[in-house]
From TrEMBL:
<keyword id="KW-0675">Receptor</keyword>
<dbReference type="InterPro" id="IPR032675">
    <property type="entry name" value="LRR_dom_sf"/>
</dbReference>
<comment type="similarity">
    <text>Belongs to the RLP family.</text>
</comment>
<keyword id="KW-0472">Membrane</keyword>
<keyword id="KW-1003">Cell membrane</keyword>
<dbReference type="InterPro" id="IPR051502">
    <property type="entry name" value="RLP_Defense_Trigger"/>
</dbReference>
<dbReference type="InterPro" id="IPR013210">
    <property type="entry name" value="LRR_N_plant-typ"/>
</dbReference>
<dbReference type="InterPro" id="IPR001611">
    <property type="entry name" value="Leu-rich_rpt"/>
</dbReference>
<keyword id="KW-0732">Signal</keyword>
<dbReference type="Pfam" id="PF00560">
    <property type="entry name" value="LRR_1"/>
</dbReference>
<keyword id="KW-0812">Transmembrane</keyword>
<feature type="domain" description="Leucine-rich repeat-containing N-terminal plant-type">
    <location>
        <begin position="25"/>
        <end position="61"/>
    </location>
</feature>
<dbReference type="Pfam" id="PF08263">
    <property type="entry name" value="LRRNT_2"/>
</dbReference>
<protein>
    <submittedName>
        <fullName>LRR receptor-like serine/threonine-protein kinase GSO2</fullName>
    </submittedName>
</protein>
<keyword id="KW-0677">Repeat</keyword>
<dbReference type="GO" id="GO:0005886">
    <property type="term" value="C:plasma membrane"/>
</dbReference>
<keyword id="KW-0433">Leucine-rich repeat</keyword>
């Protein structure tokens, strides 16, 4: 049985473009792009040979043979002789089926032919545009609004300045991830960001944004998982109850602004389970000084930073109960007092870093510290008023790398405990500004990893 000519033509067409790769226009544009970027040849050894779908860092659609992904990150980053680079946007025009373009870490300074970039954005099916860690200014963001399929936009670690150009950004209704961090954006956080209801990740950290966080707008982002505005110049009162409609939230970072964060009033119930909460230097619960009560029921926490907040009162073991994933706890520079107790039942705590320095803790160190924190790598307890002996259980911390206790008061060390004799991974031990007595090491000590030892 003979195949109809039309079917034969279709099979031939599919074989040519599906098996032999991208179009002639795409192939030519790739070679010109390589030349304009001055990509070192060792990154693209296969370029120029055969069909371009077999070239390094190029991905094609297996059915159509069209280029759908270009992964060009780090291709100019490590060669200091290459200098700045301007992308000739006309070279992008043949790639109308492109889904992902990664040009991050390339010393890219701007565009040549902005009109070509506009034309390409209007016909493009791009879903991921990754331009982070370059030296871009304000030439690209006003034109991104035409990428109607865009899901991920990363322009973090660049040189963008001034107010955020909202006319383009706020049209990206399919956007799921937006990273504007480590730039010099200033002015208010645009209210229209709340219209990007597909957003899952919003990174605005390390800029110069000022004014209040538009919480009524942010509350519309019901798919939001990650929200960070750390290290800006934001001010005003933020009640965490404003986040209660965001049930998918996992990470919140409001640190190092001029904010006042309230967690107790008005009363609310958290609908989310956080993995990371950073509220350092947030004047947290200014009127009551208490540790946020809702944290006692946050069982998925991996990182918790409440440092530099002048928190008052006693430390509650409820903050550690049923938190087997917690790796980092930072309570530095508060006004917490009383004993530092630990739960008696150890559920295999994953804690690797604990900082309770610069508080008013008193009494003895918990006898079960070593067993409750078996994987602790960094312990900082300086500038408290602890007394008594170093618990023998500390010697069980085989994986310790950095132990800093340089201003605690431990007037007597139990000689027979030799609590540090077998911490073979201990690298740094600082015990300065104490009134230590007795023996710390025995003749059988096995501290082969110790690099720094300070007693003075």
């Amino acid at each position: 049985m003979e195949w109809p000519p039309v079917l034969l033509f279709f099979v031939f067409h599919l074989w040519v473009y599906g098996c032999f790769g991208c179009s002639h226009a795409e192939r030519s544009a790739l070679l010109e792009l390589k030349s304009s970027m001055n990509i070192p040849s060792y990154f693209v050894t296969s370029w120029g040979r055969g069909h371009c779908c077999s070239w390094d860092i190029v991905t094609c659609n297996s059915s159509t043979g069209r280029v759908i992904e270009l992964e060009l990150r780090y291709k100019r980053f490590f060669d200091t002789d290459l200098g700045d680079w301007y992308l000739n946007a006309s070279l992008l025009l043949p790639f109308d089926e492109l889904r992902s373009l990664d040009l991050s870490y390339n010393k890219m300074k701007g565009l040549i032919d902005e009109q070509a970039f506009k034309r390409w954005s209007r016909v493009s099916k791009l879903e991921e545009l990754l331009l982070g860690n370059n030296i871009l200014n304000n030439t690209i963001l006003p034109h991104v609004g035409a990428f109607k399929f865009l899901k991920i936009l990363d322009v973090g670690h660049n040189k963008f300045q001034g107010p955020l150009p909202t006319r383009g950004l706020c049209k990206l209704k399919n956007l799921q991830e937006l990273d504007l961090s480590f730039n010099e954006f200033e002015g208010a956080i645009p209210y229209c960001l709340g219209s990007l209801t597909s957003l899952q990740r919003l990174q605005l950290s390390y800029n110069q944004f000022s004014g209040k966080i538009p919480m009524l707008s942010i509350a519309n982002l019901t798919s939001l998982v990650d929200f960070s505005v750390t290290n800006n110049s934001l001010s005003g009162l933020v009640s965490l109850s404003s986040f209660c409609s965001l049930s998918k939230l996992e990470d919140i970072d409001l640190s190092n602004n001029d904010l006042e964060v309230e967690t107790e009033y008005p009363p609310w119930n958290a609908t989310f389970q956080l993995e990371s909460l950073r509220l350092s230097n947030c004047r947290l619960n200014k009127h009551t000084g208490g540790i946020p009560y809702f944290l006692y029921n946050q069982h998925d926490l991996i990182e918790l930073d409440l440092s530099h907040n002048h928190l008052l009162g006693k430390f509650s073991i409820g903050l550690l109960k049923n938190k087997t994933s917690l790796e980092t706890l930072n309570l530095k520079n508060n006004s917490l007092s009383g004993s530092f107790h630990l739960p008696l039942d150890s559920n295999g705590s994953a804690m690797s870093s604990l900082d309770i320095s610069n508080n008013y803790f008193t009494g003895q160190l918990p006898f079960n510290m070593g067993t409750f924190f078996p994987d602790l790598g960094k312990l900082r307890m300086s500038r408290n008023s602890f007394q008594g002996s170093i618990p023998p259980s500390l010697g069980d911390m085989w994986r310790w790398g950095h132990w800093t206790c340089h201003t605690i008061t431990c007037p007597e060390i139990v000689t027979r405990s030799h609590c540090l004799t077998s911490v073979v991974s201990l690298q740094v031990l600082m015990l300065s500004n104490n009134s230590l007595q007795g023996k710390i090491f025995s003749i059988s000590s096995n501290l082969t990893g110790l690099i720094v030892l300070v007693f003075g």
